[in-house]
Every structure is written in C-alpha cells, then in structure tokens.
UniProtKB/TrEMBL annotation:
Family membership: Belongs to the peptidase C1 family.
Name listed for the protein in its UniProt record: Bleomycin hydrolase
Annotated catalysed reactions: Inactivates bleomycin B2 (a cytotoxic glycometallopeptide) by hydrolysis of a carboxyamide bond of beta-aminoalanine, but also shows general aminopeptidase activity. The specificity varies somewhat with source, but amino acid arylamides of Met, Leu and Ala are preferred
UniProt keywords, alphabetically: Cytoplasm, Hydrolase, Protease, Thiol protease
Source species: Potamilus streckersoni
Xref: PANTHER family: BLEOMYCIN HYDROLASE
C-alpha cells in the first residue's frame, strides 16, 4: 500500500489560486483582515446602531429585584443560581431583607452526590439491557457524566429532599466557584465506576454484591465533595437586621425544615412550577408532554418533563408572570448574537455579513436544533418586559426583555441584560411558570404519558 499523498488530493491548487486572487482584489476583505488580525473578532462585528439603541427601561417589571447581583464565577451552576434568584425575591419581601442570597454551593453539593448515584444506577440498567461502550447511548452518557448544568425538575428533586439555606451559613468554596478541576476528577472516578459495574453485570454478579460495590463507590464521591466544598451543617442559625432596623433570626433549623416552614408553606413551592418549552421540530408536536431518556439527577425522583408549545405561548406566560410580580426562570442559547460587555442579546448586534459576507442566522430554529447549531446552554431570570398593544383588546406583545444574569455586576446594566423580542423567538427554549397560570387545556397535557426522546436529543441539553 502506497503511503504517498496523491497529487490530486484535497482542494485543487488551481481553485485555491482563484480564491486567493479574488480575496486579495477586494479592499473590503483587506480592511476586515487588518481589523480581525489585531482585534477581537466579535468586537469587529459589533453593530454601533444596535448598541447605541440599548435602553434599559421597561413598562412591566417586578417590584423588587434581588440584591446583590450574583456571580457563579468559573462554574456551570447557572441553573441553580437562576432558581435561587427567583426564590429570593418573595423571600426578601416576606422577611423584610435589603440583600440576601441562598447558598448555591449547598444545592451544588447535593446535586453532585445525587447525580453520581443516578448515573451509576443508569449504567447498571444499561448493562442489563446489553448496552456496550460501542453504542451511542453509553458514549453519550460518558461524554461528561457529572457536568455542572441541570434542568428545572432536577432542582425540584434537590430542594424537596434537602431544602435550602442562607449563603452565609454555607458559603462558596474555591472548587464551587472554579469547578473545572473538580469536574475532571469526578468524571474520571465515575467512568471507572461505570466500567466496573458493567463488568460485574456481564459476569452475572448478584444484585446484593453489585449494590455493595456501588455503596463503596458513592462513599468515595461523598468524601471528595466534602473535601472540596465542606460539609453542610445539619442545622443552622441565621440572624439579620430587617428593613425596619429590627433584629430577626431563623434559629436551629435544618435546611429542609427552613424550606418547608418558611418558604414552601408561605411564599414559593417548587413543585407547583412546570417547564414549558418551544421545540419547533416537525417531528415533535405542540400540546404534547415530553421527557428525555436517562435525563435526571435523582434515582426515583421527579422526571424532567416538558410541555411543548409555540414560542408566543412562552412569551405570554412570561408576561403574565411578570405582571403578577413573579420573576421567571428560563433556558436559552446564550452564546448566539450576544454582546456580553454591553449586555445585549440582539439578532442584529453582531454584523457578520458586513465583515465576512456570511449570515449565521439563515437556518431557522427547528433546523438549528436538528443540525447541531443550537441548544439550551444557559439559565437566567426574566424580571421585566417592554410591551405594546398588538391590536387585540387587553392583549399586549413584547418588544424587549429585562434579564437578570449570574455573571456579576461588571457587564451590561450592572449585571442585567437587554434581550430583544426577536432574540427570544430564536434562542429561548424554555420557561418555568406556576402551573396555575396555564390554561385548563395546557394543564391537562401534564396528565399525558410523556413522549420519550433519546438521551442525546438536544432537548436534553443542560443549562
């Protein structure tokens, strides 16, 4: 067999010569080259007109936004931050607080432990079904087995089992804020454990012995998490001075008791919230209930469920929530058409056509999902919306959205982002709203047997 490269391999030299001649003959190309070889590519594409049109004024806005602006630092915990950010709004109002944060590290700690257990149980199940490392399912599950991201129903599992606690009582650690190294270590251990469990199943090992081995594996995960994040207190006392300058305290409470007595029974019940998604792919009908195979974080816990609706339904539900002073958890593809420093999500804010003569927005939302161009990557919170009448009495449509992020207060409007309504249409995939706000027809969808999408489906992406 010859090892030499054929002379006609690859792109023909004659074709490359034509490309070169055409490129160098364009003064626009040369100007773009001069700029992009010395500056940040995205900065070169920023649209001055879009940026100077930013106006962070909204006619509908929740009464009091949470303070301070939160910062997930170098971690993928946005879904946890967004959840606790919407929970703290009614909590701060109820208990008269100027500033407050729930402990994001606390839920992060329990998610890693529960998700490790869920993954090991899933691998035992897969092995019994004859799945092997050569198959697509196992390859998908092992790609990033203990990633930081998550979905709303995973939050419900954690909070309903473990409760919540003030950040002051279980603060951040270095590995919570810088989770990459921890993720690599845990992925290494989980991949080895999965291999060992598969081998035990293949050998016909009994259930008792398999579970005994899994218990030892989980103890190792538990040890690692305690070393890097600390051990959460079983009970805590939290003291503060309220907005009336009076001393207040929550004394000698477990996190679960704190949640059930002072949050769930009073101001916020995670179990009453549902996820409404916009998946416009033709094979996935609207008005159906969906789930994703092997997507979860707690064995025997609540399933990840989606009600699929047109994007305008998601918008109207969000407007309704904000008008009732309720912030809204949502998931989107934040990396698209985003000027992060300016805090702008706008389809026109980056002009790739001007600089490169290419249009990255030619595919529609359905096509992006089908061909791997887009999926949910980040969770944030809607706290306001700009509206105008759409011609129907009592009905308004959105023009722009106010977004609370969890990347600190340096960018945007002190950490807040402006999203255009057109951007919402293309890149927002899900919103979480109280079940009571759904129409009766939509509520009945929750009684359906969910359509099960494969584990690798883009709707299984984690924020």
């Amino acid at each position: 067999m010859s090892l030499s490269v054929p002379s006609n391999a690859g792109v023909p030299h004659s074709t490359l010569a034509k490309y070169r001649e055409k490129f160098l003959s364009s003064s626009k190309n040369l100007l773009a080259q001069n700029g992009c070889t010395t500056q940040n590519l995205l900065d070169m594409c920023k649209s001055r007109n879009s940026i100077q049109a930013i106006n962070h004024t909204f006619d509908l806005k929740i009464e009091n936004e949470g303070k301070p602006i939160t910062d997930q630092k170098f971690s993928g915990r946005c879904w946890i931050f967004a959840c606790l950010n919407i929970m703290r709004v009614p909590f701060m109002k109820q208990y008269k607080m100027e500033e407050f944060e729930f402990s994001q590290a606390y839920l992060f700690y329990w998610d890693k432990i529960e998700r490790a257990n869920y993954l090991l149980d899933s691998f035992i199940d897969c092995a019994r079904k004859g799945e092997t490392y050569e198959g697509r399912l196992i390859h998908h599950l092992l790609k990033n087995p203990l990633e930081d991201g998550g979905q709303w129903d995973m939050l419900v599992n954690l909070i309903e089992k473990y409760g919540v606690m003030p950040k002051a009582c279980f603060p951040e650690s270095w590995c919570a804020e810088n989770s990459n190294r921890l993720g690599r270590l845990l992925n290494n251990r989980l991949r080895e454990f999965c291999m060992q469990l598969c081998q035990l199943v293949e050998k016909g090992t009994g259930e008792v012995e398999i579970q005994s081995e899994k218990t030892v594996m989980m103890e190792e995960v538990y040890r690692i998490m305690n070393i890097v994040l600390g051990t959460p207190p079983e009970k805590f006392t939290f003291e503060y001075t309220d907005t009336d300058k009076k001393y207040q305290s929550f004394k000698d409470l477990s996190p679960l008791q704190f949640y059930k007595d002072y949050i769930k029974g009073v101001i916020f019940d995670t179990e009453e919230y549902v996820c409404v998604v916009n998946d416009p792919r033709p094979q996935n009908s609207y008005n159906k209930l969906y789930t994703v195979e092997y997507l979860g974080n707690m064995s025997g816990g609540r399933k990840v469920l989606y009600i699929n609706q047109p994007v305008d339904v998601l918008k109207q539900l969000t407007i309704k929530c904000i008008s009732e002073n309720k912030p809204v958890w949502f998931g989107c593809d934040v990396g698209k058409s985003f000027c992060s420093k300016e805090g702008l999500l706008d389809l026109k804010c980056l002009d790739f056509t001007l600089v490169f003569d290419v249009d990255p927005l030619k595919m529609n939302k359905s096509e992006r999902l089908m061909y791997g161009e887009s999926l949910m990557t980040h969770a944030m919170v809607f706290t306001g919306v700009g509206t105008e009448q759409d011609g129907n009495p009592g009905h308004v449509k959105a023009t722009k959205w106010r977004v609370e992020n969890s990347w600190g207060d340096k960018d945007g409007s002190k950490g807040y982002i402006l999203m255009t309504d057109e951007w919402f249409t293309e890149f927002v995939y899900e919103v979480v709203v109280p079940k009571s706000l759904l129409s009766e027809d939509m509520q009945r969808i929750l009684d359906q047997e969910p359509v099960v999408l494969p584990a690798w489906d883009p709707m299984g992406a984690l924020a």
